[in-house]
Amino acid sequence: MSSYVTEQRKRILEILKNSSERLFTVEELAEMLSCEGISLSTVYRTINRLYSKGLVRRTAIDGSRKFAYQYIDDEHCTEHLHLSCTQCGKIFHLENDISSNLIKQIQQKNNFLIDNSKTLLRGICDRCK
Ligand SMILES: [Zn+2]
Ligand SMILES: [Zn+2]
User: Which domains does the chain have, with CATH numbers?
Assistant: First the structure.
């Protein structure tokens, strides 16, 4: 991999990391990076790679076939579920004990294993209600 590609990837991760409570669409990222000569297709490619490596999580945007991406900001984030506000796009960390109870119950009753890193519970946050 060329250092050019590495550099672009680093920039995209940096933006996501600096606003780790926020979700970004590929278009938003591309707009922020356009002055640095990073194209939309590059952002697409890079973000897909980051997603497949488990460095970002994504969520489908209501009423479109697009995704929004968010940085997984700490290792503990694999231990709980996240709540996503459909109004402001903010992500909230669900308490570990509530998360693990929920996951355990679903696993026991439905025999369904939830993937924490890919699951977002969607709704409206306290501030947007
Ligand atoms: Zn978290
Ligand atoms: Zn909100």
Answer: 3-71 (1.10.10.10), 75-123 (3.30.1490.190)
